[in-house]
Amino acid sequence: MDRFQKWFEQLAGISREERRRWEIAQRIYFSPRVDIASLLQKPACWRRKSGMASGGIREALA
User: Fold this and answer.
1) Strand locations in the chain, DSSP E?
2) Which helix H or strand E contains 24, and what residues bound it?
3) In 3-state terms, what secondary structure has residue 13?
4) Taking the domains of the chain in order of start, what are their residue ranges?
5) How far apart are CA 34 and CA 31, in angstroms?
6) Looking at the predicted structure, is the pLDDT value of residue 24 above 90?
7) Which of 24, 30, 22, 28 is closest to 12 using CA atoms?
């Protein structure tokens, strides 16, 4: 398949420089930035920041 891709690029007039820029863009914009699986190992209630200053919901209801 790589050989066919190379032939097509030669026929279409895609230069090596364009191909190199495309590969760089792929690495920059399509690389995984955050490992979501590791973030989801922690339960959601532990990930949330508390909205109350100190006492939580009990102080708010009192």
Assistant:
1) none
2) helix 16-29
3) coil
4) 2-61
5) 9
6) yes
7) 22
